[in-house]
Input
Amino acid sequence: MSYWYNVSTGQVETDENRSRGVDVMGPYSSEAEAAKALDSARARTDKWDDEDREWESKGSSGHGDEDLED
Output
């Protein structure tokens, strides 16, 4: 069984009662994982933002461009 997190209602849903459309995140393998959907998404976004900042700072310093030559 898969679990889904409904961002509109804040409720965990199952395959049997899942809402349709853009209001759900998932699927997740457990109810607990689905309940933490927003926290997990926020953590991934924060990690990606940190990686983007690191990448951009390397590019602006002129380092790391060696592999771009053809």
